[in-house]
Amino acid sequence: MEDIEAIVVLQDPVRRQLYEYVVAQDHDVSRNEAAEGAGIGRTLAAFHLDKLVDAGLLATESRRLTGRSGPGAGRPAKLYRRSGAEHHVSVPARDYRTAADLLAEVADGARLDVELRAAAAREGRAARAAAGPIEDLDAVRAVLSARGYEPRTDADGAVLRLVNCPFHVLSERHPALICGMNLALLEGLIGDTEGLRARMDPRPGMCCVSVTASKNNDD
After folding, report:
1. Chain centre to alpha carbon of residue 119
2. What is the rounded distance in angstroms from the CA atom of residue 29 to the CA atom of residue 23?
3. Domain boundaries, the chain
4. 58, 22 in Cβ contact below 8 A?
5. Same fold, 2-82 and 96-216
6. I need a surface site. Which of 6, 21, 24, 140 has the fewest CB within 10 A?
């Protein structure tokens, strides 16, 4: 029921807009920033943000934005970010996660990583064929956005980092297997596009793979 209730919370258009704004940022978001991003008042934003926290969709902490402490430092601001919890709804009930975990366990134990990477590369090439020409990071971003990776370009515009791993639970349990699969999928997607390269680039809270443009290809 908790998963269903969380999804129901997002049916409210204001809450959904606030949620999408918060998760799209690369930093914790204050009530003022969220309100401005959604184009609503701060009080209304605070109400809906806390409803999202109650539903387990957002997490919150209090922190002084000035970085100072002691008298005159001001009151701590309440900041929001996406919760680490996952929510799944299936009617009637289905348990694909257990099946995926068992399959990954068997593949890992049987050392089928080569076969899995080959299958992932085929999937990447199929995604490339369906999407049309992949000529730059923008084209890669569009495909990966549709697949739930939440790609974001670094400040210099040369690295595409993937904020969300669609296979997060499996990657925690079988990191070598799933990260290798992710890399092969992106390599298949990029193909022989000149100036683009997928590489292992594990960072806390992100997918283990990133895509670099030409000026970073020698890193």
Report:
1. 23
2. 9
3. 2-82, 96-216
4. yes
5. no
6. 24
Q: How far apart are CA 170 and CA 120, in angstroms?
A: 15
Fold of 96-216: Muramoyl-pentapeptide Carboxypeptidase; domain 2 (3.30.1380)
For 174-207, b/e burial (b = at least 16 CB within 10 A) is: beebbbbbbbbbbbbbbeebeebbbbebeeeebb
Would the CA dihedral through 137, 138, 141, 146 be positive or negative? negative
* C-alpha to C-alpha distance for 73 and 95, rounded to whole angstroms: 50
Query: Which helix (DSSP H) or strand (DSSP E) does residue 77 occupy?
Result: strand 77-82
The kind and range of the H/E element at 120 are helix 113-131
pTM, two decimal places: 0.73
Q: Is 154 exposed, middle or buried (0-12, 13-18, 19+ CB in 10 A)?
A: middle
> pLDDT for 94-103, tens place per residue?
788 889 999 9
The helix or strand, by DSSP H or E, that contains position 9, with its residue range, turns out to be helix 2-9
Residue 119 backbone zone (phi > 0: left; psi -120 to 50: alpha; other: beta): alpha
Give the C-alpha separation, 41 to 164, whole Å. Answer: 29
CATH architecture of 2-82: Orthogonal Bundle (1.10)
